[in-house]
Design goal:
Helix content is about 70%, strand content about 0%. With about 140 residues, the chain is mainly alpha-helical.
Length: about 140
């Protein structure tokens, strides 16, 4: 399974958790159910999905603050569609906490936005992430 396919599965799990408003106590059970339903057996894929779900949960406050700070004036997190919000959380987590190359992360998240979001999702996400990259001083050390 490619990293792109793995990231897509992580997005699907994160979206499911966001929609269901899962409590921390239920995370493990919901992740296990997801992994079983998707027949995910590869250890590296499982590890990435689990680490991403828990990593975003652990850093949720900082991630949401960073997203909020980079919204246009008079915009609030509550106005962002769940698809876009989950994609932004995923991208911010991967760029800041996992230290993946931002060009790869942005490209893949924008592709997911084209697939799962509405017509404005790719440009919306690209704009927010560009602001976050500048604000956080993220560079690709590849």
């Amino acid at each position: 399974m490619t990293r792109t396919e793995t990231r897509q599965l992580a997005f699907e799990l994160l979206y499911s958790l966001e929609i269901q408003k899962i409590d921390k106590e239920e995370y493990e059970e919901q992740i296990d159910i997801f992994l079983q339903e998707q027949n995910i057996e590869q250890p590296k894929v499982k590890e990435y999905i689990i680490q991403t779900a828990y990593g975003i949960l652990e850093h949720q406050e900082e991630i949401l603050t960073l997203i909020s700070q980079n919204l246009k004036e008079k915009w609030e997190i509550s106005r962002i569609s769940k698809v876009n919000l989950v994609l932004l959380k995923l991208a911010v987590y991967e760029m800041i906490y996992v230290k993946l190359p931002y060009k790869v992360v942005v490209n893949e998240v924008v592709e997911l936005a084209k697939k799962y979001g509405d017509d404005t999702s790719p440009s919306f996400i690209n704009g927010i992430l560009a602001n976050i990259i500048k604000q956080a001083g993220i560079t690709d050390n590849v």
